[in-house]
Write a structure and sequence with these properties.
With about 550 residues, the protein is of the alpha/beta class. It is built from 20 helices and 22 strands.
Length: about 550
Amino acid sequence: MNPAAVATTNPAGAAGPPKPGATAVTGHVTFLGAGPGDPGLLTLRAVEALARADVLVGEGAVLDVVRTHCRADVGTAQPTADGELLASAADLSTAAAQLVMASARTGKRVVRAVAGDPGFDSGAAAEMLACAHAGIPFEVVPGVAAALGVPAYAGVPLSGNVRFLDANTATTEGCWGEVGASDATLVVATTLQTVALVAGELVAAGRKPDTQLTVTVAGTTTRQRTWTASLGTIAAELKATKALPTPEGPIAAIAVVGERTAHRQHLSWFETKPLFGWRVLVPRTKEQAASLSDQLRSYGAVPHEVPTIAVEPPRTPQQMERAVKGLVTGRYEWIAFTSVNAVKAVREKFEEYGLDARAFAGIKVASVGEQTAAALIEFGVKPDLVPSGEQSAAGLLEDWPPYDPVFDPIDRVFLPRADIATETLVAGLVELGWEVDDVTAYRTVRASPPPADTREAIKGGGFDAVLFTSSSTVRNLVGIAGKPHNVTVIACIGPATAKTAEEHGLRVDVMAPEPSVHALAQALADFGTARREAAEEAGDPVTRPSERRPGARRRTRV
């Protein structure tokens, strides 16, 4: 079978050889290390190269890591043969080289992304030679090698006498006797299915059966799992924990053999994060949930955003148009923003009229909280007032100055809001002596149902936790996707939201100490920490809530 390079989208390399007499056009190739799996391990140089790429070549898992840093119009392709992904490393390298060179010959900037480091973890050297022989310029952007990054995330420091080897190469070249006789710490690239064979080879070569080792799969990702055992017991350990899959194919693993593994119990910083591996449902859009999702990731969670509301323009836009014109002509002393959506609505209306942030000159701007303030700053407006305490309408009123006819030439406030907003802020401002133009800037409607697999995960216990940030998110999520399974941890932002959740038959496990999304995420992390500590104290395995539902898979999923 002759390997062929087939583009899966935007086949930028589909052009044939140049016509006779035509001037050859040569692009450029970047061989880029994507690291062992954590997208955060990409280097700054890698991000720069990806941003300039015209064509991105790599295998599926690698493309998932790097694609977000590329332009929207980048061509992406995977090396294939006869339409099928290649299993042979040699065939894969040949097909990739053909695809890379074909794209470069059309003048494209090509990024060939590989897992780990191009020189350490892959067969990219052969592809580099092919480019060199063809006269195609290239560069190499190093990445974090799996053999270095995975032990670091597993809490196994590597220093001193360390030797790196590939299990297949060691078997082919017959060097087990040499490495087995040494006292070096060994870092072995292998698979979960062949770890026991590697341990047997090392024992046969002279290593003591009680030599400690760690075995890590899905390293540096939130699916990472590490086993600690000895060369003599690792086979039984994997069997006892039902870690070995049957038909799923080889699962890449990094094994570290030697005394360095003894420090893992104190240095395991990654897998002991409070929400490590938890799938957390966030009933918000990706834009609204950006900072919240980042916070959850810092706790080791895997956030999954599901919008429960959709934002639409007001049915009658005239009120909003009059208010914006009044803002420009000096009708208002203040404008108060109570949501990111309100900022977006005013910004869109400004752009419609050809206005920008300069139209806010001479007007005081209030923001209900930090996220809304961030949206204003992105617009070019620095808020004059942000609550010093609780980030809510009540918190904003606590700091809002009363109307003073001596210092305030105008007594009117422009309040662009949703059609279903509460009257708390309006009533409070009126009590402080202000006149309020309460304007419907946008409407909120129930969002469309999420995909079928997400709905099934919600009802079937596939999520470990769900964060409810308002009563409407409870009602809307249940309405569009169904009630979360009873093993799912329910976290609510405040008493009113918790009451709505209970009215829908949900057990509330976590309550935020104050009504902010970040306090809610922290409260969930504290719950996860307490749950982990209780399991460890009782001598029970640390599991995620979703792993305790009936029929949940106990085997490793990587």
